[in-house]
Design a protein that fits this description.
About 50% of the residues lie in helices and about 15% in strands. The chain is α+β, with helices and mostly antiparallel strands and about 1000 residues long. The longest helix is centred in the last third of the chain and has 18 residues, at about 695-710.
Length: about 1000
């Protein structure tokens, strides 16, 4: 343990960086970051510790002096997402000085260097013992002071996350709570990462905004915990605005040649790329930096912006080094690129005296390497940066130069002691011998512009509004940007197509519908080398265009080989890679097309034919069906990814019947594992297009299950009713059992309990006859839940006992979990509160053991209601909040609404009427979305809470009575009797 803290030193101390380890009430866990701001306090983000059953803070993990301590939430503000934990340091832990707090002013333009350290998901590693851990990451970046003014937060630009291990979770997850530093001052707390803004931007809370945004008493509490003597006097760490005496930086480099791109004052984004280019150019060991990427991605613009920055006498980003003495701009599209042009322009940059002598050398009959050597010698130790734009025009398809003199120039570049630095843009890099690779760096631009910059560019392209683009909403423009993958040239061509077509006057939407078929757009975006491809290479390219995702060589061979056995896939892939028509991921051994190139190639495919679009789509669907794991091996949603891709390919091939059968095999499983909205969206794609009776029956049943969870419930009822009719007609008893079960469960969730019991009992009988133990268990569970709602708790408990017997006989973990589900609901309806809490906890653990989230939200909700009944409303909030998160993860609006309704009542009980009103309104919205009858009850509860806050007790009492009536006999919601009792109390006190 580290016993002494450095005295008198400000700024980030690595020994005070906290790993915040949270255990939730459901038994799960989460990780976050924090910082020890004083002897007994850690500053973090509120959402890291919200709903925690236990919290530990750990310092110097796996290092000498490691220590940890239990912590408690001492102060929090959910509105700004800030929390302070307090803990008792272990014996021997020395005192630490208070952190110094500052602020970044938001009243002027400034770009400020900041840094933070935490434990993001992408730094998760596995130790030698097999145990996973998260390594510490120091994120150095900048804050633009005027960004995020509306939300009052800090936008931090940092190098992008080096990995994205889970597309469903931010790679920066776990960085939340990390302290943000500007020099020696702590100015914020990392709170969010918005995926739409890219992997290189984080959002942080401003500490000064949190201090100013809370009431005076709470401000004093926070200031005391953070040891801030005067919250109103935090020093502004931003750079002072230039005054009249501030010297203006002078350009020191002589510039030859025009910039290779236009409108640099409106240049968008590419901060990380410019920073990386700057670092490479400033590195004396690097002779050549090549910016690569597909046509139209913005290579020329980013290179020109780097040159402009150097011209101003600055290095891009954080690069440091001697500034260039001269900058030379060359492009194959303007002055041309040749040794003569290079030599003459560099000679001119050296000044008249050197230029005259070098021209004499050029005119002399001397070997080319001698002439180049004289040029480099004249440059001496001064730094010259030469931009060579669009070098691909001088390269063969294998990356070799098409000119011997240029080849000699590059050979000398890597041999001479002192040489200029080359900045090159090219669709494919210059091919270098292996021994020279250490002297060259490549910066690849593969992604288009981020959403905000894409939208801004589209608006700028219609400055006068004459094309109607500037008047469109941000959402409409964002859809256009996404459609063309944010490729800058594509955005320009879209607007250009609108401007040039003065006959049809197309809208932006019109151009987007067929942009891959428009000759003017395709000509401006298609790779030049595409036109030179042979038949085999084009076929392989088309396979990858159809797949739309990185694919292995085996996949390409199987798909293409099945349609054309003579096709040499290996040779075609090698050629495409040499031409940089494909990218390769060596770690996964997969090949991919840039999304824009895939769109263009797909648009050019013939619809029919042996290698046409339909044939390739169906063959791709068969490939995914071939590699899809069997159901017994499904554990996570990733395990059904192959089925989902097979579905997509069948839809694009127009095989809706086949797609329906694929979806029916995975739909209910997806619903159980939280992908309700995805399942609904997939079913909506098939609506009115499935013609085969058995495929339609499968579609109806699977769609019904999705609607049972995601709503609206009346639609689920319609689907199962039609499914039961079709199953009876086809004499398909397993399908009939599923349809009848869904019919009964839909009635139950709609509160039509008398209509529910008959179908559910029949579903159980059919399942037993069919030998389907899992389906029988599910029917028994639903029937038990119906009995609970009817108020027949003993019959409901009998159902729970039956499920326990089935679980004991089969050893099935899911059936065991369902037995606890039936039991906690029955106990809840009987008012046996302590037993409800225990049974709910057993259900949560049993569902976790079964690997299914099916009713975790219901179990936690039941615990919350039971704790309310026991007079412990503050304690009830934690499981209710956890239940809401679980319901949201399951994309179940009905359960979300129920949890919010009960949370609103807990807030009412605690006297927090304003919060209760807002929560109840959210409950009403969720229940309305689900088509649940209880939506009116939630709205009435919101009205009661608002009236109670006025106070208007009689109006509140009337609204409570309406809420009690609207809730009906739903055992999952707080008993209506509680509301009517409170209404009576209000009337008596009025």
């Amino acid at each position: 343990m580290r016993t002494e803290a450095p005295a008198g030193r400000g700024g980030l101390d690595p020994h005070r960086i906290a790993e915040v380890i949270v255990t939730t009430s459901a038994g799960g866990g989460r990780r976050g970051s924090g910082y020890r701001v004083g002897d007994t306090a850690v500053l973090t983000a509120f959402h890291v510790v919200a709903g925690a059953a236990a919290v530990r803070v750990r310092f110097d993990a796996d290092r000498p002096g490691q220590w940890a301590a239990g912590a408690e939430l001492a102060w929090s503000d959910p509105a700004t997402d800030v929390a302070v934990l307090t803990f008792t340091p272990p014996a021997g832990a020395g005192p630490v000085p208070p952190a110094r707090f500052g602020r970044i002013g938001d009243d002027r333009h400034a770009v400020i260097d900041v840094h933070a350290a935490g434990f993001p998901l992408w730094k998760r590693r596995r130790g030698a013992d097999g145990r996973q851990f998260r390594e510490l990451h120091q994120a150095d970046g900048t804050v633009a002071a005027l960004s995020n003014l509306r939300t009052g937060t800090l936008e931090i630009t940092v190098p992008v996350a080096a990995a994205d291990p889970d597309p469903a979770v931010s790679p920066w997850s776990g960085m939340s709570g990390a302290a943000v530093w500007a020099g020696p001052y702590l100015v914020g707390v990392v709170a969010e990462h918005h995926r739409g803004e890219g992997l290189g931007r984080l959002t942080a809370v401003r500490v000064d905004h949190t201090l100013h945004g809370v009431a005076e008493a709470r401000r004093a509490e926070l200031a005391a915990l953070l040891a801030i003597p005067d919250p109103a006097a935090l020093p502004d760490v931003g750079a002072e605005p230039p005054g009249p005496d501030t010297p203006t930086p002078q350009a020191t480099a002589k510039v030859i040649g025009l910039p290779v791109a236009h409108g640099l004052e409106l240049f968008k984004d590419r901060t990380e790329a410019r920073d990386l280019i700057g670092r490479h150019l400033a590195d004396s060991a690097i002779r050549m930096v090549t910016v690569t990427g597909r046509r139209g991605i913005g290579k020329s613009a980013v290179a020109a912006k780097v040159m402009e920055t150097l011209e101003r006498g600055e290095w891009p980003g954080h690069a440091q080094g001697p500034l260039p003495a001269a900058l030379v701009n060359l492009s194959t599209r303007t002055s041309g690129v040749s040794l003569e042009r290079l030599y003459f322009d560099c000679a001119r940059a050296l000044g008249p005296a050197h230029e005259a002598r070098l021209l004499e050398v050029w005119a002399a009959d001397r070997p080319v390497p001698d002439k180049i050597g004289e040029l480099f010698a004249a440059m001496g130790d001064r730094l010259f940066v030469i931009l060579v734009d669009n070098l691909e025009d001088r390269l063969l398809d294998d990356g070799r130069l098409d000119d011997e003199e240029l080849d000699a120039f590059f050979d000398c570049l890597f041999r001479a002691r002192a040489t200029p630095r080359l900045l090159i843009t090219s669709q494919l890099p210059l091919r270098l011998p292996p021994e020279l690779r250490r002297f060259a760096a490549e910066v690849e631009l593969s992604d288009g512009l981020p959403p905000a910059e894409s939208v801004a560019l589209l608006r700028e392209l219609d400055q006068d509004g004459s094309l109607g683009v500037a008047q469109l909403s941000d959402e409409q423009l964002l859809q256009a940007a996404v459609r063309v993958h944010g490729v800058p040239r594509a955005l320009e061509l879209l607007v250009g197509a609108m401007a040039d077509d003065t006959l049809m006057l197309p809208t932006l939407e019109d151009v987007l519908e067929d942009f891959t078929l428009r000759g003017d757009v395709v000509a401006g975006l298609a790779q030049d080398r595409y036109r030179r491809l042979g038949a085999d290479s084009r076929s392989v390219l088309n396979v990858l265009a159809v797949l739309r995702t990185p694919a292995t060589r085996e996949a390409v061979e199987w798909i293409a080989g099945g349609l054309d056995p003579a096709l040499d896939v290996t040779a075609a892939l090698s050629g495409l890679l040499r031409m940089r028509m494909l990218s390769v991921d060596r770690g996964t051994r997969t090949y991919a097309l840039h999304p824009m190139d895939a769109d263009l190639a797909y648009g050019a495919l013939p619809a029919e034919g042996p290698l046409g679009r339909r044939a390739l789509e169906l063959r791709a669907a068969d490939w995914y069906a071939r590699i899809a794991p069997p159901r017994r091996d499904w554990r996570t949603l990733d395990d059904v990814q192959a089925h989902r891709r097979a579905f997509d390919h069948r839809v694009r091939a127009g095989d809706m019947d086949g797609a329906a059968l694929v979806l029916a095999a995975i739909g209910e499983w997806m619903v159980w594992h939280g992908s309700v909205l995805a399942a609904i969206s997939m079913h909506l794609t098939l609506e009115e297009q499935v013609t085969d009776d058995r495929a339609r029956l499968a579609h109806l049943i699977s769609f019904g299950h999705a609607r049972l969870s995601g709503g609206p419930l009346p639609h689920a009822l319609e689907l199962f009713t039609e499914a039961a009719e079709v199953a009876e007609r086809l004499e398909d008893r397993p399908a009939l059992q599923e349809a009848v079960f869904g019919l009964g469960d839909a009635h139950r969730q709609l509160g039509r309990l008398q209509d529910a019991t008959g179908p559910l009992a029949r579903a159980g009988e059919l399942a037993r006859e069919n030998g389907d133990a899992e389906a029988e268990a599910h029917a028994v569970l639903s029937l038990s839940l119906a009995h609970s709602t009817l108020g027949d708790g003993e019959a409901a408990l009998a159902g729970a006992d039956r499920l326990s017997e089935l679980a004991a006989a089969s050893g099935d973990r899911l059936t065991e979990a369902r037995s606890w589900n039936a039991r906690f609901t029955a106990l809840l309806s009987l008012g046996r509160w302590e037993e409800t809490v225990t049974a709910g906890d057993r259900a949560v653990r049993a569902y976790a053991a079964a690997g299914v989230q099916e009713a975790t939200d219901y179990a936690l909700n039941a615990q919350g209601v039971a704790l309310l009944a026991l007079g412990r409303p503050e304690e009830a909030l934690a499981p209710l909040e956890e239940a809401l998160r679980a319901a949201s993860a399951m994309e179940n609006p009905r359960t979300e609404g129920v949890c919010l309704y009960n949370t609103a009542w807990a807030q009412w009980t605690l006297g927090r009427y304003g919060q209760a009103a807002e929560t109840a309104e959210r409950a009403a919205a969720s229940l309305e979305r689900a088509g649940a009858a209880e939506a009116a009850a939630a709205q009435a509860l919101a009205e009661a809470a608002r009236a109670r806050a006025v106070p208007a007790p009689r109006a509140a009492a009337d609204a409570l009575d309406r809420a009690a009536e609207g809730a009906g006999r739903n055992a999952e919601m707080v008993p209506p009797a509680w509301l009517t009792a409170q209404a009576q109390h209000l009337r008596e006190d009025a």
